[in-house]
Specification:
The chain contains 20 helices and 22 strands.
């Protein structure tokens, strides 16, 4: 039973890794405890959100599954931040949790080059510093040319509910402690992180009349342009709030929470704290909002987003009934905290291959990240690079100016991860050029290079590009009578006509309004919504985009100054000791990456640049 690539773990990272391997013509085996739980949504039943949706679009542009899976199984679709600029527009989709899992399982099962093996990986096998396969906890040896570890929260997993602690990576399932020992025995340094989940509620016991309805959006904003455009009745979410009684009850029981009693010492997610942590850290705040999210059309179970907790079950039951609308709510599954191992990320390259063992890749929460989308993006990149490593081809990386996936991987490689990492639009310096709508413009050339998407898909996008350029070309030539502008005519006194370009750049105009003007004054656009929206964004923000492109060009010049793999960071005279230590530990691949390492100053970069140039000259000589 030998394969080209073995993937340990069948979560979102593992699935995208296996599919990428198969699309590139290689065989993959997913080792998982339960083949029926591929890409299971262990926490919130949703895909996307601020920053995360950009990653889903990029995954889709690289031929990945996540966008198509949620398009097929979503029960509510919304676009966030539409009142702001298109750089931060984000799509978020509520999932039918069971249907999503089933869709992924059936999709993977249909792939000839992927085999899903039920088992628990216990040891990573190596020879001469190279990964050669795994040994399961049952003693079965499975060989491979590369191994990708996508272990999620199962690596050394411990679950905490009040005073109770149990060995598990997810409630009701085992943990991978032997695998954690194997990784440490190979010389990897590990740490501990924590995440948590709220209790699940019986929707029939909720008083929905006391909650604020949150409907879906029409027309439905699907993630993937290649998904079937289905019509259905969207399921609403609801908004509610904690009360003063919630605050008093939880505050009186802080010591019963493992994160306050000292049982949990690892760091949790800064941007998704537990409800007890919220009341502790924000003691002056009287209430916190909760989103009541249905887990699917075939179930009454509800996910109270914002009420993550590890308090004892009796306190959870009391506390949840102090929330508006939840006075009679019944908990179907308690909330809990889970601690797990992760590997310190200076031990991986930008390709996600480890520095210690060639052919061994890490993706997902083992790299200190949180979130389905972050895991899936890493899994896909690890799968691509595992195949490239087997074929002895250069690795594939996306830089910070090309993709949010590039921002994320650069962050986790260069930063010291001490808490679960979450992606936001604010992490991207060049977010005006990293929008949802232009993911394919940025990514498709790589998808074509590595044969990740079909020729038909590429041709369809090329046709869209031609249509968009035609709309822009006509818009830049079009002139409009001021008298035809109704409410805007007052802005252009003593002028008979203006260009459509000037009109679209008027302050305060939304993109939707700009699209309306394109359709009104350019009949040839023929209501092509996608082409018109792309054209409106391109014209309206052209000045800002051009300015940011100049910044990207400057960034590219610094990134192009490669630091050789064999460069000795002990050589440069004039480097501060802190910079020398961090550079030697992280081993950046370029001066640009070196400049983003915490503690490395512009002066250090100037010194480093001189010695890198000298090193290259000596190597050439």
């Amino acid at each position: 039973m030998d394969y080209d690539v073995i993937i340990i773990g069948g979560g979102h990272a593992g699935v995208e890794a296996a599919l990428a391997v198969a699309r590139m013509g290689r065989t993959a085996a997913i080792i998982t405890m339960d083949p029926g739980k591929l890409a299971l949504m262990s926490c919130n039943p949703a895909i996307g959100g601020v920053g995360k949706s950009h990653v889903v679009k990029e995954i889709d542009a690289l031929g990945g599954l996540m966008g198509k899976a949620i398009d097929a199984t979503g029960i509510q679709f919304r676009r966030l931040n539409l009142s702001r600029g298109p750089a931060v527009w984000s799509t978020r989709v509520q999932a039918d949790r069971v249907a999503y899992n089933k869709y992924v399982v059936e999709y993977v099962k249909a792939q000839e080059k992927i085999e899903v093996i039920q088992g628990l990986a216990g040891e990573i096998l190596t020879e001469c510093g190279k990964a050669t396969g795994i040994r399961t906890e049952n003693g079965e040896v499975i060989g491979a040319q590369a191994v990708i570890v996508c272990s999620g929260t199962f690596l050394g997993g411990l679950i905490h509910i009040g005073e109770q602690t149990r060995v598990a990576g997810r409630i009701g399932e085992l943990a991978a402690h032997k695998l954690a020992d194997s990784i440490r025995s190979l010389g990897f340094k590990t740490g501990r992180l924590k995440t948590g989940t709220p209790p699940r509620l019986d929707g029939q016991t909720i008083d929905w009349s006391k909650c604020e309805i949150q409907p879906g959006e029409e027309p439905i904003p699907f993630f993937s342009p290649n998904s079937r455009r289905r019509r259905f009745q969207q399921t609403p979410c609801h908004l509610t709030y904690t009360t003063q009684a919630t605050k008093e009850l939880i505050s009186a029981n802080f010591e019963r929470s493992p994160i306050f009693s000292g049982k949990v010492t690892s760091t949790g997610p800064r941007y998704c704290p537990s409800i007890e942590d919220k009341f502790f850290r924000f003691a002056d705040k009287e209430r916190h909002q909760l989103f009541l999210e249905p887990e699917g059309n075939g179930t009454d179970e509800v996910y109270p987003n914002g009420f993550s907790t590890s308090l004892p079950e009796d306190i959870q039951r009391e506390a949840i009934r102090t929330v508006t609308g939840l006075e009679s709510a019944v908990i179907t599954q308690p909330g809990y905290a889970v601690e797990y191992d992760y590997c310190l990320t200076h031990q991986i390259k930008a390709s996600l291959e480890t520095r210690l063992i060639s052919g061994l890749f890490f993706a997902g929460q083992i790299n200190g990240t949180s979130g389905y989308e972050e895991a899936a993006g890493q899994g896909l990149m690890a799968g691509i690079n595992a195949v490239l490593a087997i074929e002895q081809e250069p690795s594939f990386t996306l830089d910070r100016s090309e993709a949010y996936i590039g921002v994320m991987i650069d962050d986790i490689v260069t930063l010291s991860i001490t808490e679960p990492y979450r992606l936001f639009t604010s992490r991207a310096e060049y977010r005006l050029t990293l929008r949802e709508d232009n993911a394919r413009d940025r990514i498709y050339r790589y998808a074509e290079k590595y044969s990740l998407v079909s020729r038909e898909t590429l041709q369809g996008f090329q046709q869209l590009t031609v249509r968009t350029e035609a709309v822009i070309k006509r818009a830049l030539k079009k002139r409009i009578k001021v008298s035809d502008l109704d409410g805007l005519a007052g802005r252009f006194e003593k002028i008979d006509n203006i260009s459509l370009e000037v009109l679209l750049k008027q302050p305060g105009m939304t993109v939707a309004e700009a699209v309306g003007y394109i359709d009104q004054f350019d009949p040839e656009s023929n209501g092509d919504q996608e082409a018109s929206e792309r054209a409106a964004i391109s014209i309206r923000y052209s000045g800002y985009i051009d300015k940011q492109q100049r910044e990207v060009d400057k960034f590219k010049r610094l990134e192009s100054q490669v630091i050789p793999d064999d460069f000795d960071f002990a050589l440069p005279v004039g480097l501060k000791q802190e910079a020398r230590e961090k550079l030697a530990r992280i081993r950046p691949g370029s001066l640009g990456q070196a400049s983003r390492i915490e503690g490395v100053t512009p002066g250090d970069i100037a010194v480093l640049s001189v010695f890198v140039t000298r090193h290259k000259g000596n190597a050439s000589a």
